[in-house]
Amino acid sequence: MALPLSDLLMFGSGEKKLAACVVLLLLELFMEGAEAGSTNQADIDNHLELGKDFLARGQLSDALTHYHAAVEGDPNNYLTLFKRGTVYLALGKTRFAIQDFSRVLELKPDFTAARSQRGIVHMKSGDYDHALLDFEHVLREEPQNGLVNEHYSRLRPAKEQWELVQHLMNNNDDQNAIGMITQLLEISPWSVQFRQARSDAYLKTNDVLSAISDLRQVNRLSQDSTEGHYNIAQLLYNIGHATNALKEIRECLKFDPEHKLCFPFYKKLRKVEKQLVTGEQAREQKQAEQCISAGEAVLKHEPEETMIRYEAHKLLCSCYTTDEQFGKALSQCKQALDIMKDAQVYCDRADALLGSEMYDDAIHDFQSAIEIDENNARAKEGIQKAKKLQKQAERRDYYKILGVKRNANKQEIVKAYRKAAQKWHPDNFKDDEKKVAEKKFIDIAAAKEVLTDPEKRRQFDNGEDPLDPESNSHGFRGADPFAHFQHGSPFQFKFHFN
Asked: Cβ(419)–Cβ(449) under 8 Å?
């Protein structure tokens, strides 16, 4: 029987294309009638008809259900078995497809379409010996079969290349092995053996993400094994991807909720992942205390895994800096950078160094960040800010004058101002002490003016003194410092307290 549409299946580039070809093939087979002597039982015919309808709508799993029923009703109908095999193939269930095609050939050895299909599945699965046997059998019957001839001509060179790959890997030449396996996968994309080998080679070259990508394909081709999900989860966790690892381990538990490896790993992973997510959210929302608590919890739950601990140190580096606990921040930043150099961590540590007034070291860290990421805007702006702050350090620091943190809110600033103004009011002092108090009081008033004015505070935080006459700003310096106060004397005013 001529099956021109079956040739299309040989070059299906994906499940959708293959499924479409399957639909056309089966429609053609239905129109040709039951050449193989299929039974006339009404229920079998009904299942076949329903299977065809589901195929037409692209519902392959539903179609497969009805072909199962049809095969059970007549297990010796080679044509129905062939149809089910093509649906298996469209679904990527290669092992079952081969079983059906093999059963077809037991029932009808001269059905070359089934033998061609089985050879193609063997070839795409990397089983070159069995593919050669099937193609040679077809070519004895159809020596002019162009597609089978083309496939056949590629098999022996591919087989030799696989032998060379194994030699390269045995000699630790993994980089060249990866390139050659990639070529083989163009011929045999369903080969578990090839993908596993390339995954192993990627791991040996420290390309973990590529290794995981291949392992996902191995797992899919192996019908989602629990072992596969566990191995992928472990690799993801090893590189610090806790959230993705948790998703993977949950897939394992779907198959076996009490899995001896997946379940205990899940319990630990769930705690770590929750704290990492909580910490990151707190960091983004500037909730330093909650962020620090989460980061410390991660270090407690995971005492060994380097990259998970790196994520915790990185988190703590940022959040301790935000909370102006600069000593602790520098310690956490160092521990993170000892594990992996990262532009963000360098910038966080540079900010902690700025807070500690270590301007040269801060500039050095910002430069290190630029060496990793030459387009890092934060680092470039940080260098300019550090230089301005270094220059500003020779002048007044309004935060220090009022004794408040750099992230203090307006209410905290006003409260600190009132307390300092009461303490250093010149009317409380005499003689030389009065002169010192007057200087202190002027600085206190200047600090309040700058830090309670959003625009002036922004300028100061960027390393500029808005009251410095050199910056052409209008403020205390270069003008009458007491012009801001009412009454004849600058010190004749009242404080109003709640």
From this structure: no
Contact present, 186 and 164 (Cβ < 8 Å): no
Q: Which residue, among 25, 30, 24, has the nearest Cα to 47 in the 3D structure?
A: 30
Q: What is the mean pLDDT of residues 214-240?
A: 90
Instruction: Give per-residue pLDDT as tens, 252-303.
Output: 999 999 999 999 999 999 999 999 999 999 999 999 999 999 999 999 999 9
What b-and-e string marks burial along 83-118, b requiring 16 or more CB atoms within 10 Å of the CB? bbbbbbbbbebbebbbbbbebbbebbeebbbbbbbb
State the Cα–Cα distance between residues 301 and 489, nearest whole angstrom. 63
Site of tokens 């997510």: 277
- Cβ neighbours around 137 below 10 Å, total: 19
At residue 485 the predicted structure's pLDDT band, cuts being 50, 70 and 90, is very low
CA angle 371, 373, 377 (to 5 degrees): 110
Q: How far apart are CA 347 and CA 319, in angstroms?
A: 13
Tell me if 460 sits within 8 A of 398, measured CB to CB: yes
Using a cut of 0.70, tell me whether the model's pTM lies above it: no
